[in-house]
Amino acid sequence: MSLRARLLAGLLGLSLAGLVAVGGGTYLALRSFLLDRVDQQLVTAQRLVNAALASGHGASGGTVDTRLLRQVAPPNTFLQLRDRANRIEASLQIGPTGEPTPAPRLPAALHPAAGGRSASVVSFGAEAIRGTGRYRVQTSWLPAGAGSAGILVVAVPLDDVNDTLARLLHVEAVVVGVVVALLASGAFWLLRTGLRPLERIAGTAAGIADGDLAVRVVPADPRSEIGRLGLALNGMLERLQDAFARRDRSEAELRRFVAGASHELRTPLTSIRGYAALFRRGAQNNPDDLATSMQRIESEATRMGTLIDDMLLLARLDERRPLERKTLDLTQVALDTVRDAHARDPDQPITVHHSGPVIVLGDDHRLRQVTANLLANAQTHTPPGTPVEVVLSARDDQAILTVTDHGPGIDPEDAPHVFERFYRGAATSAAARHSGSGLGLATVAAIIHAHGGTVTLSSKPGHGATFRVALPRRTEWPAEAAQAGPQLDVTGPRTTRLTGARNSQLAHRQPTGSPQPHGAA
User: Fold this and answer.
1) What pTM does this model have?
2) All domains of the chain, ordered by start, with CATH?
3) What are 261-290's pLDDT values in tens digits?
């Protein structure tokens, strides 16, 4: 049975039970009221007859004067007088118009009360001798001085009471039928309207089962239970869609990663095999060829090892393995890395702008790798002698590191993909393609993301490129870190320019106190 049918049946069943209970209560109350009125008629008739018999007007010479009793008794009443031995002395049937009516079927022995004479009254029902009528009968002892009779029987027919109750039952049956019919129609419409959102939810679930995760339940009104169910289902669908989308992206990235790794590893392996074959063909007998072969084998092996290390690092970061965290000065990290980069390429002019220590909580080795990769990217993809600027600043709760080159910039079509693994733009030179693995910027993005920061790129063709790294910043050195070692002591903005091999050393000096962070240069 459907939910709608169960709800409709339950509602109608409860409504019918309530109506029957109300109707039954009304019937019983009216019946009790009408019987009380009949009992009052019986008591009135009994008093009139007792008064007539007690005064002697109803009895003459030991016999009962029925003519006088007919005048005294109320209309539509049956009277019977019996002696103490229950022998009938007189019976009188008075119809509504004074005509005789069928007498009730009375027991042969009547006992109003156990014991002698008293005013005790016993009431009971009895059927008519002829027909289907019923009587309300009341028996009592006659008072003293009422002649030889001992028991008075007064009966009133219940035809009017039964007719009234029958009509009430008929009216109640019609009313209950009409009310139940109206309730059924209204409840069916309400249930159909109220359960329509559930039908839409069922249709949405069917669509999901068919593989369509883009369907949504509409409308979803939070003011109703079904609406909240729809909102919860929509939220679940969004999470499922996001989860499947992430899974698809992860699978696509994994396929690209494996394809890129295979391609990158194949190049040095091919070179190593080629030089090894050259060695077998007799290069060992030629010192120049032997040196060249060993040098190239070592270079390609180093390149392959670097590639493998980068892939292992990215795999660890993808698994969200915790990094080493300690308080460090990002300015000091950048200055050390710039010095190393200048040592590798003395002809590359690098300018560093800073205003003192910028305190962060992070992995020293990985943050140095970030700065080194950004500088290496600038040195690799710009012409020789292109100026590079490194700026360190502190803004609110962020530590900012920017690396800007004044080279040819990045093509707008390549800019959204520079942080993807093994991605190389169409404009990348052959030398850059050969020297890089395509994982440098991807490694930067993964390390910064693991530190809870962000890295962004802004570039215009012909106007260079700027990489901006933002990390959570600490406002002061911890007490244990303030005494751990040398720190920069800079009291104002400072610019360091490295333009040749002679300027590759950066000035350091011991702090004279705990340094305070400064704003952006």
Assistant:
1) 0.49
2) 3-165 (3.30.450), 225-317 (1.10.287.130), 324-503 (3.30.565.10)
3) 776 777 778 888 887 777 777 766 777 777
